[in-house]
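Below is a typical protein record.
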Amino acid sequence: MGTYILRRLLLIIPTLLGIMVINFLIVQSAPGGPVEQMIFQLEGHGTAGVNTRLGGSGGETASSGSPYRGAQGLPPEVIAKIEALYGFDKPPLERFTDMLTRYAQFDFGESFFRNQSVWQLILDKMPVSVSLGLWSTIIIYLVSIPLGIRKAVRHGSAFDVWSSSIIIAGYAIPGFLFAIILIVFFAGGSYFDWFPLRGLTSDNFQELSLAGKIADYFWHLALPLLAYTIGGFATLTMLTKNSFLDEINRQYVQTARAKGLSESQVLYGHVFRNAMLIIISGFPAAFVGIFFTGSLLIEVIFSLDGIGLLGFQAVQTRDYPVIFGTLYIFTLIGLLVKLMSDVVYVLVDPRIHFEAQGK
């Protein structure tokens, strides 16, 4: 197992490098980069805005033949200062090498347009992602696993049919559409005003007691969580059901029943461990996937400033440090969590040996 883990850790390096190279080429080739974004902002403020932001003297000669859109009316020295400000005075290969050198030391620099470090921005947005990711994962697992087991035990019954219909209907409903429906009915839309519409806590949160803070937190989180998890039950429920059905039909289950064991002993003493292997091993990856992905539309609808909204705004403004910094962090975490899933799989079922399988 140690050899396999070491091999996988070494493979993370070229995998991460390949992902960064591909995304660097795509993002850098897209129009409307940070230089053009700054030119657009400065043109709205005139020459005084240029001088104030860049500390220049504001020459009168218009630039000609500039590769940037909308730069023809700006002096060449201003364009040069903007390029130096964002590091575009260096060739792409040098910029990429410098970026990877800093990222290897977990130095992600500062946002181009927010005057904050990338680390600080991520930490500021984490409460929303932690809240949505943690509680949605717990709710989905707590509901889907018992439901999947019961559906397997009562396969083909009326309960199996109507429960499948409900979770598939929930899977088919877009989360953002369900969020709008919840707002209309329960957040002061057209019917009831039972839940708040924005934020993760109330304005007087710090003045509340501990019990009051917990209640206020979940009061704000109720509708976003419901909208966020509505489509998450189907996959895990059906996976659990099919896994249990596959194990129930095996020979060892028939043998256990022939020995006189009760159905409960057979199900939870023999079937449960084997059927839950694939589900338990996938928990780390499932948690991190929900934890870091975020949901842009859910965050926008409920005015939650999280990772999803941060990423969207970074792409809009071509905020390269935020784009590549978050990409590096979450890709690295994703690769490590995938390795963790394999390790958990071996711990749950010691019969599995990756080295023996040549993986």
